[in-house]
Amino acid sequence: MKKMTLVIMAAGIGSRFGQGIKQLTSFGPSGEIIMHYSIYDAIEAGFEKVVFVIRRSMLKDFKEAIGDRVAGKVETAYVFQELEDLPEGFEKPDARVKPWGTGQAILACRDVIDGPFAVINADDYYGKDAFRKVYDYLSRVRNAEEGKFHFCMAGFRLNNTLSEHGGVTRGICSVNADGELISIAETRNIIKTKEGPAVREKDGTIKKLAPDCLVSMNFWGFTPDFIEELAQGFSRFLETLNGNELTAEYLLPMIIDRLLKEERVELTVLGSRDRWFGITFQEDVPIVRKEIGDLIAQGVYPADLFGK
């Protein structure tokens, strides 16, 4: 029986957080990390399976620190994003150390996904509203019809995604009257000001942004036929590296942008009222701990998320 699946992209955790999974920062009173709250919300929304995309070298530590804690609550699977996992006819450049990107991360799930699936980052908090809306969409959606895919994305209000401690990069969405995505503009160095969010340009000038505009935080909903599209696109990507073999990445926003330009996808943006948070700067850590503590005090989460 096909199961609604949540895919968590976690292959980059070790490089972002230090020398191993056990050094991940805990935010909950019982040692929970941000990922645990996402899994809890996904289960509550109705997701029946969680797939962790990790590096093979992370498996033992990852299972001990993260996976074993939720294994009794939801079906889990592990897949490995490896530099050598390439289509037939391609080989990893000798000096390549950078991962191939989020497109390859999802492609690594090809043997464990058979139904609609959502994709999130491992170290972002999205809130219950986004999980409910994406699950509801995926419960109704069908595979591509007349050559056009039907996907969704959780969109967050820009003002709910900013850091108190410096500029951030966000994908600002342009959406039509029907709630369909037209384009995503990656916008760097968005800061908080007294007047609201703004971009600080290189010359120091400030450009105001609408606080309620929707931004992408890499929370997607896909149908299973997207996997084959990713496979074909990955081969085309590798054929056209043109001297960027060591640094080029096969990224979901880039793939979605191509499908939009080719008019091969209708992508519904599902606006979420929840506040996103994550760790952009080390100074964000106490703020995130306070946010989690406030949610527990309000009864949104139990103090011990999964029990003993």
Brief summary:
The protein has 308 residues and is an alpha/beta fold.
Can you offer a commentary on this structure?
By secondary structure, the chain is an alpha/beta fold. It is globular and about 55 Å long. It has a domain at 5-152 and 218-248 and 275-297: Alpha-Beta Complex (Spore Coat Polysaccharide Biosynthesis Protein SpsA, Chain A). Helices cover 28% and strands 26% of the residues. A hairpin with a 5-residue loop joins strand 7 and strand 8 (181-193). Helix 2 (34-45) crosses helix 5. The two termini are 30 Å apart. The strands form 2 sheets. Strands 1, 2, 3, 4, 6, 7, 8, 9, 10, 11 and 12 form an 11-stranded mixed β-sheet that branches.
| Fraction of residues in β-strands | 25-35%
Number of helix segments? Answer: 8
At CATH level 2, the architecture of the domain at 5-152 and 218-248 and 275-297 is Alpha-Beta Complex
Q: If you compute it from the alpha carbons, what radius of gyration comes out, rounded to the nearest whole angstrom?
A: 19 Å
CATH homologous superfamily of the domain at 5-152 and 218-248 and 275-297, by name?
Spore Coat Polysaccharide Biosynthesis Protein SpsA, Chain A
Query: How many β-strands, per DSSP?
Result: 13
Secondary-structure element pattern, one letter each: EHHEHEHEEHEEEEEEHHEEH
State the low-pLDDT regions, or none.
none
CATH topology call of the domain at 5-152 and 218-248 and 275-297: Spore Coat Polysaccharide Biosynthesis Protein SpsA, Chain A
What summary fits the major beta sheet? 11 strands, mixed
- State the name of the first-level CATH class of the domain at 5-152 and 218-248 and 275-297: Alpha Beta
